[in-house]
Amino acid sequence: MIKAIILDFAKKNHDRLEGELKEIHQVFSICHVDDGKPKIPESGNNLVFISRVGNNDLKYVEEAIEIASSSNLPILFIVSNPDDLFFKTIENEENVWYVKEPYSKIELKHTLEHLDSLLEKNDDQFRLITENVNDAIFVMDMKGDFSYFSPSIEKISGFTQDEAVKKNLSEWITKESYVYCVDMITHFATELSKGVVYDPPVFEIEIICKNSQTILAELTVNPIIDDNFNFKHFIGVLRDINSRRKAEERFRIAAQCVSDLIYEWDMKTDQMEWFGDIDKHLGYEQGEIKNNLDSWSEHVHPEDLPRVMKTIDAYRLNGESFDAEYRMINKDGKIKYWIEHGLPIYHRDTGKIQGTIGVCSDITEQKEIENALKRSEEMFRLIAENANDVIWMINEKGKLLYVSPSVQKLRGYSPEEIYEQDIENRIANESGLQAMKQWNEFFRKFKKGVVPDTPRKLEVEQPCKDGSTVWTEMHINPVLDDEGNFRYFLGITRDISERRKNEQELMEQKNMLDSIFDLAPIPMVLLNEEIIVENMNNACLEMLQRKKENMLGLKAGEVFDCINSEKGDGCGTNKECIKCIFNDSAIETFVTKKNIHKREGKTTILDPAGKTIQLNVLVSTAYIEIPDEPKIVVSVEDITARKMAEQATISSKLEAEQANRTKSEFLATMSHELRTPLNAIIGYSQMLQESNFGNMSEKQQRFASHISTSGKHLLELINDILDLSKVEAGKMDLYMETFDVNEVIKNVYNIIDPLAVKKNIELNFEIDQDISIYADKIRFKQIFYNLMSNAIKFTPNGGHVTVDISVNESFLKISVIDDGIGISKDKQIKLFTPFYQADSSTARTYQGTGLGLSIVKKIVELHGGTISVESEEGKGSNFSFTLPFLKE
């Protein structure tokens, strides 16, 4: 019989409890806690503490648990209205029980008898463990000497109990294992002397058996100490884990071979060991998911996590096996459906739950099927009740078994009214005859299990309640039972009035488009995806001189000879050549769905008399998007006449260019011939001015000066014409050399300065660096001189002319800027055209031929440079030219 020790806190009245214990024949005693630590009586009875506590006695609960734990005895609380704090305090404690007030004497008696039974059972289990357990239990001192081994040591090592206790720890295990154990035990003893107590250490060691072989064993040592932390001895357990390790390895391999994930969860540390690749299941790299409960919970769907954690919390309390279904989120954010089944793992000594072994199965595919089925069922319900189409079932006698409510919207009759109608009255006369014909044909051909191939879609005109009719389309499907017998027709009826109207409008539009197609002046062909001719307009038939019925159904290559590209990418010989423009453009349009605009080519056709006709054509395509049967329109525009006109234009241009070259050659010859007499005229006039033939009167001097000036002007004109002729004839040669740019500019300055002084024009030359360039020095001087002389010519008295020079890595840029009369925008475009001048009045005011700038431009371009002008009428001009820095 169990003996109860009542723990009395604050001298409470325990009369009722004492009386109840007496009535149920329980031995008890009262221990007043405030008198000091209770003394455990020596008794043959099993002992248990009892304590009555209230809602505000949490400190008493904690103190009572500490007393019971230090005495290694169970405790029974009698508590009124236990709250969350009470349960939180006792949830992780062993050997703690409670009875909730009010309680009955039978309940109290049953609880104490249950505790007595458990204590008796524990005593029997201890005896059985020490004598019959497979693990070897031992007692060992700090030096490693043994005083006791259980009989199972012989089964593990081959040594008898007597042989085993005579061996020191150093003789029992390998050297490596001994060093490891001694280090751990020494550390443990050191900490123990400081009052620090750890959980019993567990070692994996190799022990030496009697046959000199070694096996892998698990060694657990538990220190026995007195109240003052004085070490007495170790009590330990030695377990053979060789087989377990092999089994674990086999289990791990097996776990890798199945699709499910198996795990073991340690409730004390929340560590989780996964047997199977959880990282791979969730799309992570190996090791990204940590082996603990927190890491696992991070991947549970946030909406499911509270429910799952509630299941886990309940499991911690009651330890019952559980099933849970929840969603996991993989690395890509996709949802995985898991179902988990967990079983408790009990501590081998205390019998309390210490963890879980569980299986997680991925049921995503199953859930998707279930969800799809639910959606399908829901969709059918919504369709049947809310769709515009009418869903119906009818048996072989024509009796309606079901019709959806939408029939009232279609025909004005309620479902009840439709049920009362015969099948003949549900459809108009002509449609009725056709429907009944199909009905009879079906049953005439029907055989058990074999559905005849009769039409399943009918267009039927049905009468409405208001006397009108509505055109409908019926889709009919026979439903058979498992044995192949006919059960009923399942059908859908749809209002096609609008569709028939649209079809009629489309037909009218098609006829109109066909008329436009036929009347189009450009030859056109309609092709399908197989490049087969489906239609050809009148213009194309007229060009080919063929009849339409002979053209339809032909391949495009049979209509036209290969349309050989002007670029040479068609073969020009094979009617089926896919490289020819016609076929190639058609295929490309079907593939890319993009239109092609005017590809030019040549082809030949035969007239009815067999005569070959050469054509120049432009091929264009237009893609027509039609579901499942796209088309293209190919236009073949005959441009033979246009090409002939273009050829005539080209010939005229060539003739004009030849005439221009002839003119240039003539001018060059004439210029050369004119130079000889001019040189004599200029020379003799200068001699007359210098009085080489005697003194002349003032009037004679003036006439000689006019002769000299006019001769020089005519010579400049002849030189310009000669230069222009050379350029146009491509005969102007450059004599390249490296020279100092500043030297040439200063030379031109010296020549041009008297003209500037005469008009009181200020010349500004911005030269601050030495520049050399590889070019034709004479032509360079000609360019610069021309721009400078023009600037002075078109700048009024008292004006300014500025020369700006800039250099970068690739080019030399020289700008001549004046504040003269300027040039309007519309005239700047023609400024570099030969013989062009701003206008007739300017030509009269400022003499010149209009050749200078055109020659300058061509010389600059021969050097690989550019020339430009920026000007505004009345505000002056800026002429700039650039020359590249060429290498010799």
Automatic annotation (TrEMBL):
InterPro entries: HATPase_C_sf (IPR036890), HATPase_dom (IPR003594), His_kinase_dom (IPR005467), HisK_dim/P_dom (IPR003661), HisK_dim/P_sf (IPR036097), PAC (IPR001610), PAS (IPR000014), PAS-assoc_C (IPR000700). Residues 669-887 form the Histidine kinase domain. It catalyses: ATP + protein L-histidine = ADP + protein N-phospho-L-histidine. GO terms for cellular component: plasma membrane. Keywords: ATP-binding, Kinase, Membrane, Nucleotide-binding, Phosphoprotein, Transferase, Two-component regulatory system. It is found in: Membrane. It comes from the Archaea. Its main location: membrane. Its EC number is 2.7.13.3. SMART domains: HATPase_c, HisKA, PAC, PAS. Residues 122-169, 247-319, 376-418 form the PAS domain. This is histidine kinase.
